[in-house]
């Protein structure tokens, strides 16, 4: 099996744990062997990812009104 995981850049603290869990799931569910399971993790920059017609970088950026609000 070949598993391709796409994630927002910087969203994952440790890729090793994710790869181990995905590999074990393929072994448990699909009867694959760990040696035959390939996992690729692609980090996608926030300004290269969109949801609902809006760039993720813009969704995650603090709003101007939030910056101006008194603390």
Notes on the protein architecture:
This protein has 71 residues and is an alpha+beta fold. Helices cover 37% and strands 25% of the residues. The chain contains three helices and four strands. A two-stranded parallel sheet has the order 1-2. The mean pLDDT is 87.
Count of helical segments? 3
Q: What are the segments in which pLDDT stays under 50 over at least 5 consecutive residues?
A: none
Spatial strand order of the main sheet: 1-2
How many E-type strands?
A: 4
Radius of gyration (Å):
18 Å
**N-end to C-end Cα span:** 51 Å
Q: Rough shape?
A: elongated
Mean of all residue-level pLDDT scores: 87
Topology of this structure?
Blueprint: E1 2-8, H1 15-30, E2 38-44, E3 50-51, E4 54-55, H2 56-60, H3 64-68
Parallel strand pairs: 1-2
Antiparallel strand pairs: 3-4
Relevant terms:
71 residues; alpha+beta; two-stranded parallel sheet; two-stranded antiparallel sheet
Short description:
This protein is α+β, with helices and mostly antiparallel strands and 71 residues long.
């Amino acid at each position: 099996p070949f598993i391709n995981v796409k994630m927002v850049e910087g969203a994952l603290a440790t890729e090793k744990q994710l790869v181990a869990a995905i590999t074990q799931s393929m072994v448990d569910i699909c009867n694959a062997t760990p040696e035959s399971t390939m996992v690729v993790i692609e980090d996608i920059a926030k300004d290269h990812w969109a949801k609902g017609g809006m760039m993720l970088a813009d969704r995650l950026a603090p709003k101007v009104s939030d910056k101006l609000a008194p603390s």
